[in-house]
């Protein structure tokens, strides 16, 4: 696996599931550059990832996530990036929530696991922006 450059976003994020029929708030899409917002609609509901300070009310939510983003853009022909990150974090006992965009991959780790995650990724040879 090639050496990746990974940046740690400063804000805590929330992963939540919206109630059936509840649309995501339109203001989530106007947070500006640097804010990671992901909305995925699937058979099991609508999942939203967004900065905690902007998270809508939801009965099902997990606060306290930090975002680690691979510096991109990444070519679609590249293979094994997410597998490498997941494997390195799993070996360190760190669970993750994955989000991909057109240009890159992001992994969210619990804030309580951030230091352990960064250490594992650095030991695997990746560059991680200072915390």
Automatic annotation (TrEMBL):
Residues 62-123 form the CASTOR ACT domain. InterPro entries: ACT-like_dom_sf, CASTOR_ACT_dom, CASTOR_mTORC1, UCP008459. Gene3D superfamilies: VC0802-like. This is Amino acid-binding protein. It comes from Actinophytocola xanthii. The lineage of its organism: Bacteria, Bacillati, Actinomycetota, Actinomycetes, Pseudonocardiales.
């Amino acid at each position: 696996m090639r050496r990746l450059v990974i940046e740690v976003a400063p804000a805590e994020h929330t992963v939540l599931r919206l109630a059936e029929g509840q649309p995501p708030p339109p203001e989530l899409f106007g947070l500006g550059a640097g804010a990671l917002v992901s909305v995925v609609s699937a058979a099991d509901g609508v999942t939203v990832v967004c900065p905690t300070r902007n998270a809508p009310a939801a009965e099902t939510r997990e606060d306290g996530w930090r975002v680690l983003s691979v510096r991109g853009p990444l070519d679609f022909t590249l293979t094994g990036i997410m597998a490498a990150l997941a494997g390195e974090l799993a070996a360190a006992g760190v669970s993750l929530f994955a989000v991909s965009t057109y240009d890159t991959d992001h992994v969210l780790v619990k804030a309580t696991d951030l230091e352990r995650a960064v250490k594992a990724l650095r030991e695997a040879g990746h560059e991680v922006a200072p915390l």
